[in-house]
Amino acid sequence: MDRDEFIITVYCLICEHYQRIKRAFPLRRGGFAPALTDEEVITREICGAYFKLHTDKDLFAYFRTHYAHFFPQLTERTLFVRQAANLWQVKATIQPRLTQVSGQAADPMQIIDTLPLPVCGYIRSGRDRCFKPVADSGHCAAKQLNYYGFKLGLRITRCGMITGFPLLPARPHDIRLLDDLVEGFAGLIPAAKGFIDAFRQALLAERHGVVVMTPPRKGMTTPHSPTLLKLCARVRKGVETVGSHLTERFAVARIRVHDLWHFHHRLIRKVLAHTVGVFVNLQLGRPPLDLDGLLAG
User: Fold this and answer.
1) Looking at residue 132, what DSSP letter applies?
2) Beta 210-213 vs 187-190: how paired, if at all?
């Protein structure tokens, strides 16, 4: 599909779920109706993130220049930015709805991992005042990166749809964040070697029905069959692809704001845009993680 068709598809999708949310939770109790509808604002955010427009200034300028016929009331950037930020709870509700409607939330096998989320350069971390005291220094062994910021927890289904994305502290080792990553899930969890902890894994299996499957280290014995280990190693590659999408296409590691509230809002916008892309691919019968091939040109 071309960009016009993609925007219309996203708009129809958002309208469907927005109306259901609005019936369940009253969003406005009075006052004048905004010039842009909430559905239009969320559509522009999702499409802008998908088109790699990472700042509100670039997003506004692009749609004002190329799609004024789609959004004729788009005249004031500050009003758009304020309305978009105030809709963060709606976007945070639409994202899990899409996982449920698509049936992906019920997937009995989901993969976990973490991503580094720097909020400023490591050298400047001592002078940073925007995220004190919640941000901290951390180390990503996979990327050999020392950074200052947070970790993004990821839990995805086998097809690549994100079902969990908690914002986590950067300093603790991944194994100490395992409970946050598997919260609300029961089933099989393929994970990397960084999540090896026999005691914690046994506790999760006994209390919550969560089986964390990690590749054994050299010299370790495992009760799991080689076939199951190979299957988990294969599906675990999907979380690397999703992490690459979020880092490269959606630039989650380059969010530059001055407070945690706006940081979380931008993060929700980008995760929702990724979820919408996977959802549309599933509806069209395409490879779910082929985000580049969804648009023709």
Assistant:
1) T
2) parallel
In a shared domain, residues 225 and 116? yes
Q: Which residues pair with 189 in a beta bridge?
A: 212
Structural domain includes residue 263: no
pTM listed for this prediction? 0.93
Q: What are phi and psi of 159, to 5 degrees?
A: -85, -10
Model confidence pLDDT, tens digit, residues 159-194: 999 999 999 999 899 999 999 999 999 999 999 988
Token code pair at residue 94: 């639409």
Mode of pairing for the β-strands spanning 187-190 and 162-164: unpaired
Sign of CA dihedral 96, 101, 107, 110: negative
CA geometry: angle 41, 45, 47, nearest 5 deg:
115
Give per-residue pLDDT as tens, 253-269: 988 888 888 899 999 99
Indicate if 74 and 201 belong to the same structural domain. no
